[in-house]
Amino acid sequence: MTRLYFTLLFVLAVCSGLAQVPALKPAQLKDEITVILGSKNKLADAEAMCNALKPNGVSCFVLTTPTPQGLRYRVCVGRFAQRAEAETAKKSLIEKTGIADPWLFKIPIEVVADTLQKQAPPKLVSVTPQAPPFDSTGFKNAYRSILYALASNNSLAVDAFINPIIGLHVIYNPGAHRIAEKVNVYADLLKLSILQSEDERKTLRTSLGEYATGLLRSGPLPEYDCAKEAFTHTGLFYKVLTETEKPLTPLMRSMKDLVMAEPLTPEELAQAQRLDAAIQVRVKHSDGLLVASLYFAKVEGRWYLAVLDLTVPCDA
Fold first, then answer.
1. 217, β-bridge pairs
2. pLDDT tens for residues 98-123?
3. Domain count, the chain
């Protein structure tokens, strides 16, 4: 019962703390300037034009705009607050696309609002990948720095790799259920119930040292087979996660269901998903003293340690 009480406190604290995570705003409701490459009578024609621009590396969206002659589907590139920025983009687009007469269009407040309500946000026609290719070298360099800081017990160095909004979520299983505790600084990590003794803290540092010095490779993560009491394969591996492999949202669901017997509210779910959206990579080592998974988040171009999963496999 005591564990459930503290779990309830954690769920409430997380749900409260998640409100600090900035909401993703599709657009501010203010006048914006876009570059129009063409205007069509039919949505399908506008989308086809966007697709035709794909070889030129142009990413555009279709803006539905009411006119006296009826709806027009305008093929737009960019949303700029300043006219000078839009003019620069226009010149670049002339060179890229060969379209000689693109024009600037001020998107008025009412059109922006109407677009958000009807399309939430404006329908985008993706002609380039939604995210840049994964920078494996950049990640590996950041990974080494983070792990060496942890293994050296340098609290100031570790704190630099804990994002102040996301924090560091430590997952473990004191019984049949997995729970998580959020810390914002390294000193608080050492105060957790699973790290009360110096032997436990030393084991953690030693294991993280093995993570720091091992040969990190991309590939399937080693999973522990309880029946065979062995890993499926050995080594230190990282994996770029898909949306369904993010760790926090399903854990928050199960914790709230366990404590309150009810699902996450839509707001709580959205906030948890925002945290998961930043988490991109999971690392797992088959040969460490601890069976641990490390999850890393990227925020504004910088890597952080976001989740330390110390769940003991096969432990009921």
1. 237
2. 888 899 988 755 444 444 444 444 34
3. 2
